[in-house]
Amino acid sequence: MEKPEEKFRPGVVWVGWRESALCIFAKLEDDRIFTRATGDNQRLWDRGDVFEIFLRDTKRDEYLELHIAPNGHRLQLRFPDDQTIEHLRNGHVELEDYMVDQPLFDFFVRTVTGGWEVWAQIPVVSLGSSSGSANGMSLLASFSRYDYEDEKSPPVHSSTSAHPKPSFHRQQEWKKLTFTE
């Protein structure tokens, strides 16, 4: 995309780590925060504003897709590999088969002047680390957003990855993060 959509509102994502967890902070500008989410593990991208976290340990095929709505609801998905998305799109499998009910991460959201903020802490064991330490771990990561005005308007999509087409699951465009002391 050569220039942002007319209604695009920027956001900033900071990523860090401590011994046993990945830490993410996002500040999202938003003229009108909107969501119809009423519980966890709903299709949040269809219900309003959502911040998405995509993470894959470079040593594994399995990856996480974590959604956070501005009213504190989450969707947690664990996919065995990148081909799973094609199977979902073709109707060969159901999204519910990949939903994770047990919390994989801690988070909080808050409304601030001009938008909303997200803080998330994801234990490295949720990412597949057997050592329990983030030190030396390499991840592929992408952070995305659906920004709605209301239920009748289509969302504005944005991502930290330079996707040539609107498909947040294209791991070849995700950024590599390596955690070292």
Topology overview:
Blueprint: E1 11-18, E2 21-29, E3 50-57, E4 63-68, E5 74-79, H1 84-89, E6 106-112, E7 115-123, E8 138-147, E9 156-159, E10 175-178
Antiparallel strand pairs: 1-2, 2-7, 3-4, 3-8, 4-5, 6-7, 8-9, 8-10
Structure characteristics:
181 residues; mainly beta; Immunoglobulin-like; 4-stranded antiparallel β-sheet; 3% helix
Gyration radius, in Å: 16 Å
Low-confidence stretches: none
Shape: globular
What structural class should be given to the helix and strand makeup?
mainly beta
| Annotated CATH topology | Immunoglobulin-like
Strand content: 35-45%
Kindly give the count of domains.
1
SSE string: EEEEEHEEEEE
Sheet with the most strands? Answer: 6 strands, antiparallel
Tell me the helix content.
Answer: under 10%
Distance between the termini: 36 Å
Could you name the CATH class? Mainly Beta
How would you classify the quaternary structure?
single chain
